[in-house]
Design a protein that fits this description.
four-stranded antiparallel β-sheet; eight-stranded mixed β-sheet; alpha/beta; globular; about 10% strand; about 725 residues
Length: about 725
């Protein structure tokens, strides 16, 4: 398994506002998700699984309160970034498959449109975002070049933009034509097979589609002989009419075969280097003749190492170095201001208005230290203003709110006790005190200051060791990609071809035909495949599956699980799989987090949890899994989960746990480390706890699993 962490959840605490009080849904949970692994989060309904996943994706309900913690992805804290920044992550980088596929699909829209709609909208938003990033970056680059004494070199970047626009002028049509050629090849294969099997039902529709793909493949660098292609497609449509009249499609075979040969030959050709071509045309003043891509690549490669690119890279290096040095000066000033703020907020807290004025000035100093030419943003500096203001708000709201909350609690308690004293049965319970711990709130304020100061200190040391030559190459590459992102347009035909390929990848047969169908024409399992296909259209890093098999029968469940496993391997996806059924994840999870009442009670590899379970709740889950190899009666878990508006004082599972100790009702257990990969929060692991054997039914199941696993492994 990779050691690269794609996602880190640290001390996440989530509550919900309800009419009956604050419900604690997630309580101080921690886990990591590594590249290419499947992490299963298992627990009963209401344990906090879905609340966690929706918070990761930034789609929590309006009554959600994120009380603390961090969710780190790609150097950003997802709890602190703006909705605009989240828009670039949600769906693109982190996608989600929901429980009920029918409710996830629009019943009156064809599935093809639902697949392509997200791609087209996302492309439009991405182009807008790239334009904004490029313009902002070039503005800061221009200012840095002036500061570095290279004002006369600013024109280099305008020339660079001309090169990018010229590149896009040729690369855009090429991408469209190449996509059409690939689609035409597939359409030819499908048509030839259908003709051979006498199964071509929509002759006119299929011929028209093939004609459009083939004509769309005409381009200087794809199908170069446009006259021949148009002649063949005209011949195709003529023979199509004859085939419909004769009720036989055999006559289509020769022309379809010839079309297939033409597009196959085009797809085998070498692709041009469009950036080198653009440099050749703009810098050298050349014009495009009838050269092939292979011939042009030899002609244009010297343009990449000419005087313009050398001077451009030198200017970029000087501007980046100037911007970094200026940022270091700002960070040193910010570190002094942060140290002064530590003392200021470390003693007696000032009045709220004075504190907020101080915080605003400090945020200005911090933001002035940010290097605007950094392509990877440091989240702590960018989010300092919001996070520090939020920490101060928590403290000052606690100062005033605690008094009100204490008065409410005292009043309700007095009323409750008065009713009891009169021999009456009170209506309901007294809602527990929900006070803000002012000490913890002040620690949070201090933590933000210290963390940022440490990051700035590390950053100032790192800048001294920068290889600005290498950094300038990386920066220019980033500028190039961003500029192309601004110009790159996904057409409807490109989106359709991508959608059909993904439909085939998720196991939907006759994808071209089913592309035009409605959700009600698909079975439950096929609808779930469509939902998975939609989530894959943006090629995400992380796929969150929120009980994706609950609404399906057992046979289809197995197919969907196998599909998710295959997609994970093929795309190197990181998967968070949420389920209430521990048996579902037996053959797909790399690691498992068992949740109960908002807390992770056991955490380890699949082997740890299945073969060496340590928490009584995990024992109970294993004992309740149906087993074809056993005639033993399943053991139901007694009782119900606690009402988290009134969370229990000790272990939340104690009231349902026949192995509970007295301390379980008095104090929450810490997370005990069993091995380097295995942890469990149960007092049974304390050195002074009595020895308790796991239930016999669980032991027998582990023994059977071990035996079957041994046989299957040869």
């Amino acid at each position: 398994m990779s050691t690269e962490k794609k996602l880190q959840v640290k001390d996440l605490t989530i509550s919900f506002r309800t009419v009956n009080g604050k419900l604690q849904a997630v309580r101080d949970i921690n886990f990591d998700l590594y590249k290419g692994e499947t992490l299963a989060i298992v627990g009963e309904s209401g344990s906090g699984k879905s609340a966690t996943s929706k918070t990761i994706l930034g789609i929590s309900a309006n009554n959600t309160i994120v009380e603390g913690g961090e969710i780190l992805y790609d150097g950003k804290d997802l709890l602190k970034i703006s909705e605009e920044d989240f828009h670039a992550i949600r769906g693109d980088k982190i996608a989600m498959v929901f429980q009920d596929p029918l409710s996830s699909l629009n019943p009156i829209m064809r599935v093809g449109k639902q697949l392509t709609e997200a791609m087209l909208l996302k492309n439009k938003a991405n182009r807008r975002e790239c334009r904004k990033k490029l313009n902002t970056s070039l503005k800061h680059m221009s200012a840095s070049m002036v500061g570095a004494g290279l004002a006369e070199d600013k024109a280099l970047f305008e020339t660079f933009r001309r090169i990018i626009k010229t590149e896009a002028k040729y690369e855009g049509p090429y991408d469209t034509a190449h996509t059409n050629a690939a689609a035409a090849l597939k359409a030819c294969d499908d048509m030839l097979l259908a003709i051979e099997k006498d199964a071509l039902t929509d002759v006119k529709g299929d011929c028209r589609e093939l004609k459009n793909y083939c004509n769309g493949a005409i381009d200087h660098f794809v199908v170069r002989d446009g006259e021949k292609m148009k002649s063949l497609t005209a011949q195709l449509m003529k023979q199509c009419g004859e085939a419909v009249h004769a009720k036989s499609c055999k006559g289509l075979t020769p022309v379809v075969t010839e079309l297939r040969s033409l597009v196959e030959e085009a797809l085998a050709c070498e692709a041009p280097d469009f950036f080198a071509l653009a440099c050749y045309l703009v810098l050298d003043g050349k014009t495009l003749g009838n050269e092939t891509a292979a011939e042009l690549n030899k002609l244009t490669s010297p343009s990449l190492t000419g005087p313009f690119m050398t001077k451009f890279m030198d200017s970029a290096r000087a501007a980046l170095e100037y911007s970094s040095r200026k940022s270091v000066e700002g960070m040193k000033a910010a570190m002094a201001a942060l140290s002064e703020a530590e003392s200021y907020f470390g003693g007696e807290m000032p009045a709220e208005a004075e504190a907020k004025k101080k915080a605003a000035a400090l945020a200005d100093t911090v933001e002035a230290a940010i290097d605007p030419l950094e392509t990877v943003k440091e989240s702590s500096a960018y989010t300092f203003r919001v996070s520090f203001s939020s920490a101060l708000d928590t403290y000052y709201k606690g100062v005033s709110g605690n008094v009100t909350e204490q008065a409410r609690f005292d009043k309700q308690t007095a009323k409750y006790e008065a009713a009891v004293a009169k021999g009456k049965t009170p209506n309901g319970k007294v809602a527990p005190l929900a006070l803000v711990d002012l000490d913890i709130a002040r620690e949070s304020i201090s933590h933000i200051l210290v963390t940022l100061k440490d990051q700035f200190a590390a950053r100032t040391e790192a800048v001294a060791k920068f290889d600005f030559g290498k950094r300038s190459a990386t920066y220019v590459s980033w500028l190039h990609e961003t500029a192309l992102g601004e110009i790159h347009r996904i057409t409807r035909s490109m989106a359709k071809d991508t959608a059909i390929r993904i439909m085939e990848q998720v196991g939907i047969s006759e994808a071209r035909k089913r592309y035009h169908q409605y959700p009600f024409e698909f079975s439950g399992g096929m609808r779930q495949r469509i939902v998975i296909a939609i989530s894959l259209t943006a090629d995400p890093d992380i796929l969150i599956c929120d009980e994706p098999t609950t609404a399906l029968d057992v046979t289809i469940q197995a197919q969907i699980l196998e599909l998710i496993n295959n997609l994970k391997r093929e795309r190197d996806l990181s998967v968070i799989f949420i389920t209430h059924d521990l048996g579902v994840v037996a053959n797909m999870a790399d690691r498992i987090a068992v949740m109960y009442a908002g807390k992770i009670v056991e955490y380890g590899t699949a082997e740890d949890v299945f073969y060496h379970p340590a928490h009584p709740y995990t024992w109970a889950l294993l004992a309740s899994i149906p087993d074809l190899n056993s005639k033993d009666k399943l053991e139901a878990i007694p009782g119900t989960p606690p009402n988290m508006i009134y969370p229990p004082v000790g272990d939340a599972f104690a009231a349902r746990n026949k192995y509970a100790l007295q301390i379980d009702f008095e104090e929450q257990p810490p997370m005990f480390q069993i091995s380097d990969t295995h942890y469990a929060a149960t007092w049974l692991l304390h050195p002074n706890a009595p020895h308790v054997e796991m239930p016999e039914i669980v032991k027998e199941r582990i023994a059977r699993m071990s035996k079957l696993g041994g046989e299957n492994n040869g």
